Amino acid sequence: MKIDYLQALKRIDEARGAWILHGQEPLLEQNLSDAFRQSWITHDFERQRYDINSVSDWKNVFNALNSLSLFSQNLAIEVHGNIKPDASSLKLLKHYIQHNEHNLLLIIMPKQDSASLKSAFFQLVEANGVVVALNASSAQDRQRILAVEANKLGIQLDQEAWLWLEQNHEHNLLAAKNSLMRVADTFPELNQIGIEQLHECLQDQSRYSTFDLSDSILRGNLNQSIKTFQYLVASGEPNSLILWTLSKEMRLLMQLFEQPQNALQLGIWKTKVSQYQQALRRLNPQHFLMWPDLLLRIDASIKGMSQENPEHLIQQCIAEMCGYRLFN
Question: Are residue 295 and residue 229 in the same domain, yes or no?
Fold first, then answer.
């Protein structure tokens, strides 16, 4: 079946079988992923993660699903990538869905074009599991999603404030959530937030944004990119938001390298296609193989799971995307 993001949030504790999350809204992916992982901890699921870099990697996934450890009765396999299973792996997927009632296969993919959504892989999961599109195509959808985030923070916005938030974040849900957090921290005594509070809190903190960081990186301007990053850090921008911006741009560059004719289908704005093409001509595709590991290191450092400095790693990531290697 197909369900939307808010419906998926309500069904996480009962999720079993096979689920696909696909889209390019980092806030939705982050929230669902965090909710799934918390549910797995609560219900004593063993969690394993696999990154799909080739079709053959799917066999490792199904081998894991069929071989539980001695210490767990329930297993959650989290899969990341944009490579769909081949015919032999589809048979294994079908067998898993039909014969396993306790485990969960959670597949997280970037935005898919219409042809991919009609593929045998998506049709199999849609018929026997759950497919969630991580998107918010209308202003009403975005407001419903952000209203949930505002409720978590104990605040409500009047309609004029919602309109201002929507217009000033260009449909960027993650940036809008960050602004809601700032407003809640700035006015802890207020439950109802109006446009005056939004103006007071946000109008002077937007000299540089994550959009500016993306633009300078695509142009290969390392000095400006580092300057923008340092401003974002000084102004309180969370490292997690910066990481999402970098990971999105890395993913788009790698996808465009593999699918040079599908820029619009990948979600790249028409006015920015030439910037991505110029960036690809500047970059060494062999370095793409190291990017996922670098992103994982940044994520671990932000969460305090490693001793590495997240800001140093982020600057290394920025340099890589600008075409400079800090370390061999």
Answer: yes
Same domain, 225 and 189: no
69 Cβ neighbours under 8 A, 6+ residues apart: 46
Residues in the chain: 328
Specify the CATH number for the domain of residue 271: 1.20.272.10
- 65 and 129 assigned to the same domain: yes
CATH code where residue 24 lies: 3.40.50.300
Summarised one tens digit per residue, pLDDT across range 129-145 is 999 999 888 888 888 99
**79, two tokens:** 């899969």
Give the pLDDT band of residue 253 (cuts 50, 70, 90): very high
Alpha-carbon span 212 to 206, nearest angstrom:
10
| Residue that finishes a domain, picked among 163, 180, 202 | 202
**What is the biggest distance separating any 2 CA atoms in the chain, rounded to whole angstroms?**
59
Among 56-65, 112-121, 165-174, whose mean pLDDT is lowest? 165-174
Quick check: 41 and 152 in contact, CB under 8 A? no
Closest CA to 5 of 147, 122, 119, 101: 147
Answering whether pTM is above 0.85, one says: no
- Beta bridge mates, 157: 193
Q: Locate the DSSP E strands across the chain.
A: 2-3, 17-23, 45-52, 74-81, 104-109, 130-134, 156-157, 192-193
Which comes out higher in pLDDT, residue 206 or 281?
281
Residues 268 and 215 in one domain: yes
User: Are the beta carbons of 28 and 111 closer than 8 angstroms?
Assistant: no
Contact 102/72 with Cβ under 8 angstroms? no
Number of other CB atoms surrounding residue 20 within 10 Å: 22
Q: Which of 115, 134, 153 is the endpoint of a domain?
A: 134
Number of domains making up the chain: 3
Residues 44-70 have pLDDT tens digits of 888 899 998 889 999 999 888 876 544
Domain residue limits at 113:
2-134
DSSP 49: E
